[in-house]
Amino acid sequence: MTAVPSTDDDVLTARELYRFYRAGEEETLALRGVSLRVGRGETVAVVGPSGAGKSTLLACLAGLDEPSGGEVRVDGVRISHRPETERARLRARHVGVLLQTRNLLPHLSVRDNIRMAQHAVRGRPAMTAEALLEQVGIERRGRALPRQLSGGELARAGLAVALANSPAVLLADEPTGELDGDTEQLVLRMLRDRAADGSAVLIVTHSAEAVRIADRVVALDDGRAREKGGRETGHAFR
Ligand SMILES: Nc1ncnc2c1ncn2[C@@H]1O[C@H](COP(=O)(O)OP(=O)(O)OP(=O)(O)O)[C@@H](O)[C@H]1O
């Protein structure tokens, strides 16, 4: 993401990502050659105006969407340009995703959502569902269905699910939008803790608080990424 060459410590790398949308007559180039990397233990904030391509970028990084061109690697494994089922398998093993729309299955209790996310973990998960519930402060809500939770509880449950597989890469889309101060602080602290444990954390955000906790900030504008105060990130790998 900087002029520094990528290293073995890079857990998340994107090279020259393009994403082209066609809807009827309308064509949009949402990503125009975005390259970035996030190292082990690093937190990167991605900022930019509405329509800049932030959600598109995050979806491509998570393997939820396929870039039209370029490559994404998580934990040393290419996740882009694979069938959807393969991407889902790799995501379940290597990636935690915290989405605006929440990452919970509506018909499962919070505890079962966590257990489901732990399914892909090899061996024993680092933390039990109970321990995760406690860590995010909703230990009494494990049996509740997502629709029975308040907004703050829902955010905490989503965080527990995103962390359930101890992901090497944690991707968060506006994780603090519309949260009360306490919940915002908890979410940011846990994202930081995850990075301190060695994950690569990337946060798409408008929040000044989230930007403040980031090690680096990447500005996305009209599908192009630029390290804040730096050069266009597409040059990083040239
Ligand atoms: N499924 C789609 N089909 C067609 N165009 C799309 C699609 N998804 C996004 N776009 C377009 O791609 C561009 C980038 O959208 P994206 O949602 O990634 O921006 P964003 O930076 O996340 O915006 P916001 O901050 O408002 O959420 C926009 O011009 C948008 O209209």
Automatic annotation (TrEMBL):
PROSITE patterns: ABC_TRANSPORTER_1, ABC_TRANSPORTER_2
Keyword Kinase: no
Cellular component annotations (GO), alphabetically ordered: plasma membrane
PANTHER family for the chain: IMPORT ATP-BINDING PROTEIN, LIPOPROTEIN-RELEASING SYSTEM ATP-BINDING PROTEIN LOLD
SMART domains given in the database record: AAA (SM00382)
InterPro entries: AAA+_ATPase (IPR003593), ABC_transporter-like_ATP-bd (IPR003439), ABC_transporter-like_CS (IPR017871), ABC_transpr_LolD-like (IPR015854), MacB-like_ATP-bd (IPR017911), P-loop_NTPase (IPR027417)
Source organism: Streptomyces antnestii
Family: Belongs to the ABC transporter superfamily.
A GO molecular-function descriptor: ATP binding
Keyword terms of this UniProt record: ATP-binding, Nucleotide-binding, Transport
Keyword Cell membrane: no
Superkingdom of this protein's organism: Bacteria
Coiled-coil residue windows: none
Signal peptide positions (record): none
Residue ranges occupied by any ABC transporter domain in the UniProt entry: 12-236
Name of the featured protein: ABC transporter ATP-binding protein
Gene3D superfamilies: P-loop containing nucleotide triphosphate hydrolases
